[in-house]
Write a structure and sequence with these properties.
This protein is an all-alpha fold. 72% of the residues lie in helices and 0% in strands.
Length: 108
């Protein structure tokens, strides 16, 4: 293995001091954002209506062809479901960013 490559690689990894000093602040901001968005996601899930069918509608012949089912995308329930999905994606991305910042900065 070429040791010059290893030395050059480690020299390229040197960062400015302000960058390494800002990692604890960035991690704290990410944690606060994750906590607040998680709380908002819990509230959106709690405000959603439950399904009144137990999945047996297809076997019993119950019809779901109503005005409400045709216009379901314009209701509050659909908006809350979309908001839940968006919040889950944002929280997942923030969690990945948090753990990447932990992997990059080890406190030295």
């Amino acid at each position: 293995m070429n040791l010059n490559f290893v030395n050059n690689f480690s020299a390229a990894a040197v960062v400015e001091p302000w960058i390494s000093q800002s990692f604890p602040i960035v991690r704290m901001v990410l944690l606060i954002l994750i906590a607040v968005l998680s709380f908002v996601m819990i509230l959106t899930i709690l405000f959603q209506e439950g399904d009144d069918g137990s999945g047996m509608n297809a076997m019993t012949g119950a019809s779901a062809d109503t005005f409400y089912s045709k216009n379901k995308t314009q209701t509050l329930t659909a908006t809350l479901k979309r908001l839940t999905v968006v919040l889950a994606i944002v929280i997942a991305v923030l969690a990945v960013l948090f753990f990447v910042s932990v992997a990059i900065y080890n406190g030295n």
